[in-house]
Design brief:
The complex is a heterodimer of chains A (297) and B (424).
Chain A lengths: L7 E5 L9 E6 L3 E6 L8 E4 L5 E7 L10 E6 L4 E4 L9 E5 L8 E7 L8 E6 L3 E6 L4 E7 L4 E6 L8 E6 L3 E11 L3 E8 L5 E7 L2 E9 L3 E8 L5 E3 L5 E3 L3 E9 L5 E6 L6 E6 L4 E5 L7
Antiparallel strand pairs in A: 1-2, 2-3, 3-4, 5-6, 6-7, 7-8, 9-10, 10-11, 11-12, 13-14, 14-15, 15-16, 17-18, 18-19, 19-22, 20-21, 23-24, 24-25
Chain B lengths: L2 E2 L4 E4 L3 E7 L10 E3 L3 E6 L2 E6 L4 E11 L2 E8 L15 H106 L6 H10 L6 H11 L8 E5 L15 H25 L9 H14 L2 H14 L4 H13 L3 H14 L8 H17 L3 H14 L4 H20 L1
Parallel strand pairs in B: 1-6
Antiparallel strand pairs in B: 2-3, 3-8, 4-5, 5-6, 7-8
Chain lengths: 297, 424
């Protein structure tokens, strides 16, 4: 058991190799630390990255998945999203911050995607005013943005290490949106389908590592919902001006279960055993679950 | 007077009586036949046949067959005995009457009992059906539970198996590791030293490299591929900043669809308030302090009204309304001024506004409402809209029935209306 002076909000193993297994954490003070769990007194890497709490963290390039440099992205209440390379101290390799004088919005969630070769990377960030922004790290520009009318609690690409395929964004008011990321229309952006799962906030979404069309959402009512996305007959079509636009498919609920009276704030799948997952809830319990019959879907 | 059917014929056995009754062309339905233990009646207006039977019969099992222009009764005797005649010979009127009534009563009771019995059987049937469905559902639920339980156990076993596999896998790898260690130390050390000069990848001695070599497939091939991979990690990105614009939002809280309506309203109200303050400020900066107080202005207006300066009073009330447009008394008094000035439409407007503001109708604002109605009524009448005026006067009377003036005025208006109606 290891205890640190500042409370920790989020963590990821995403940027470390399978051997090193360093844990990258963001805490309530805005510090990003990377810890070697076998020698946890001093962090391997540490930086005071943000002025306020780091709400969300994601890592890419590690765990034997994907290619390219290991990178960590953090999103904070100070409205900025910063990308860090553990080999470079003190300064982020990318910083997405509000324009001078603009009032900031809380960034609630971040996710990496599109890391299918060494240069390409994309960061998706969701904010409390319903904004979703997609930043391209290769061109260092804003690639797409939209607003889903409710604060965005969690975003995740179905796979980080492929050409970006699908993005699920969950929000307050029990809604989530699935975006088809293969076809970007110049004005309309990405096609999406949205679903209202329940009345309470959907805290997190996680795709099944073994099947990227199945994902689970966890809700503020203490429930977990398992969904399957079905692709449409044609994923893209031409609009009246001849530009390609995407066609969203449909989402169907496979199963749901209520585990707790308190919100389930985080959840993750095991990469090794199909259907094994763990979730943590506000009632101070960590539950390990297994979902069966996933082979039959 | 009914027509008696007397041409019946009958015969009997020890246990039954067979009675045949021709119907002279009338058509019979079961409703026309009335039978009880000792009394039989067939009534097809205007035909009538009745018989007080010699002895009681079992009326539930007896039958009547209707057909061929006659009714054929099969009556089963209660007591097997030969009857002297079909009917009781020495029956006098009273007895007949009594028997008749009795029969009717008995029939009624029987009917009641039958319905009761039916109800009870129905209830029992329902209960039975309910229990049966409940059992079925219970069985279904149990079946589902069993399936789930089986699944759970199966999965638990699989999990155990998988866990053990993992453990074994690890053991295997660690054995391998020892083997590889002896073979590969030297070339590895050289390679690692080279690399340490190039990049800053933390590399804690050779122990880590040993693990790397054992990971995945066995042997030396993996070492080389791993080394190559590490060398190919690109340098950290060139730092850059992307500037971001947010969808504007006034509130610091997160955006929720369910709250959007409330927020819009609040913003609207704020905007209204600001507008009012601004408009006042621009024009009224040279007013004295007290002149910005609506109550003071109202009093001023009242004084001017009392002195007869109606225009001045209107001005005072106007200013007061601009400062605070929610005080009904201002509109009320302004209406009175307009009446005196013969601005009848304005008077109606102001009284209406006052009445609006005086909802909900409670005893406290009674007098104000009476005044409003009276003033509006007067304005209507002076515009010769007598019906509307009367409506208002009657509303005023409803609130305050004891006011003589209003009553008299209302009467006058009624006469006026009747007068115009008769005239036209």
């Amino acid at each position: 058991k290891i205890e640190k002076p500042k409370p920790i909000k989020c963590g990821t193993f995403g940027a470390t190799s399978l051997q090193q297994r360093y844990l990258a954490t963001g805490d309530f003070d805005g510090n990003l630390n990377i810890w070697n769990l076998e020698a946890p007194e001093i962090p391997v890497y540490s930086v005071k990255g943000h002025k306020e709490i780091i709400n969300s963290i994601d890592g890419v390039g590690g765990l034997g998945i994907g290619e390219g440099a290991p990178e960590i992205v953090t999103g904070s209440r100070d409205g900025t999203v910063k990308v860090w390379d553990p080999r470079q101290n003190d300064t982020p390799v990318a910083n997405m911050e509000p324009v001078q004088g603009e009032s900031k919005r809380d960034c609630w969630t971040v996710a990496f995607g599109n890391a299918y070769n060494q240069e390409e990377r994309v960061v998706c960030a969701g904010y409390d005013n319903g904004d979703i922004k997609l930043f391209d790290l290769k061109t260092m520009s804003l690639r797409w943005e939209t607003n889903i009318k409710n604060g965005v609690c969690s975003v995740e690409f179905d796979r980080k290490d492929i050409n970006m395929n699908k993005l699920v964004a969950t929000s307050l008011e029990g809604k989530f949106h699935v975006f088809d990321m293969r076809t970007q229309h110049p004005t309309k952006g990405f096609a999406s389908v949205s679903e209202k799962a329940q009345k309470s906030t959907i805290w997190q979404v996680r795709h099944l590592p073994q099947n990227r069309d199945i994902f689970m959402t966890s809700g503020g009512s203490g429930s977990l919902h398992l969904w399957k996305y079905e692709y449409p007959a044609q994923r893209s079509k031409k609009d009246s001006e001849g530009s390609e636009m995407g066609v969203a498919g449909s989402v169907s609920l496979l199963q749901n279960v209520t585990l707790s009276t308190q919100p389930i704030s985080s959840l993750d799948w095991s990469p090794d055993k199909k259907g094994l997952c763990v979730c943590g809830a506000f009632d101070q319990t960590v539950r390990v679950l297994i979902v069966t019959k996933l082979n039959k879907i | 007077m009914p027509v008696w059917l007397r041409e019946h014929s009958w015969r009997q056995t020890l246990t039954a009586v067979y009675l045949s009754l021709p119907l002279r062309g009338a058509r019979a339905t079961p409703a026309n036949i009335f039978c009880s233990e000792q009394y039989l009646k067939v009534s097809i207006p205007p035909f009538l046949f009745e018989a007080v039977l010699y002895a009681p019969i079992d009326d539930t099992n007896s039958t009547a067959k209707i057909g061929n222009g006659s009714i054929f009764f099969t009556l089963y005797k209660k007591e097997p005995a030969m009857w002297d005649s079909l009917t009781l010979a020495n029956a006098d009127k009273e007895k007949l009457q009594y028997l008749r009534e009795n029969a009717v009563l008995k029939a009624q009771e029987k009917a009641k009992e039958e319905t009761e019995a039916k109800k009870i059987t129905k209830q029992e049937h329902k209960k039975y059906a309910l229990e049966a469905t409940m059992k079925l559902e219970e069985a279904e639920r149990k079946r589902i539970e069993d399936v789930k339980e089986k699944e759970r156990q199966k999965v638990a076993k699989e999990l155990e198996l998988w866990k053990n596999q993992q453990k074994d896998g690890d053991k295997y790898k660690s054995i391998q590791k020892k083997g590889a260690l002896h073979q590969e130390i030297e070339p590895l050390k050289e390679r690692k030293n080279e690399k340490n000069n190039k990049t800053r990848i933390p590399n804690e001695g050779t122990s880590k490299t040993r693990l790397k070599s054992a990971k995945g497939c066995h042997g030396s091939s993996s070492i080389f591929s791993q080394n190559l991979k590490e060398e190919q990690l690109p340098a950290p990105r060139a730092a850059a900043t992307i500037k971001v614009n947010f969808t504007p939002r006034v509130f610091p809280t997160a955006l929720r669809e369910s709250r959007v309506a409330e927020e819009e309203e609040w913003l609207h109200k704020q905007a209204e308030a600001r507008r009012i303050i601004n408009s006042d400020l621009s024009e009224l900066e040279d007013l004295k302090e007290e002149e910005k107080n609506p109550d003071w202005l109202k009093d001023k207006g009242n004084k001017m009204f009392a002195m007869g300066d109606y225009l001045g009073a209107v001005n005072a009330y106007n200013l007061a309304v601009r400062l605070n447009n929610k005080l009904p008394l201002l509109y009320l008094n302004r209406a009175a001024c307009h009446l005196k000035l013969r601005n009848l439409h304005k008077a109606i407007e102001d009284s209406s506004k006052a009445l609006e503001l005086l909802t909900p109708p409670v005893p406290d604002n009674e007098s104000a409402r009476v005044k409003a109605h009276v003033r509006r009524g007067t304005a209507f009448c002076q515009l010769e809209l007598y019906t509307e005026g009367l409506q208002d006067y009657e509303a005023a009377l409803k609130i305050d029935p004891r006011n003589k003036n209003i009553e008299e005025d209302a009467e006058k208006i009624r006469h006026l209306i009747q007068g115009t109606m008769q005239g036209s």
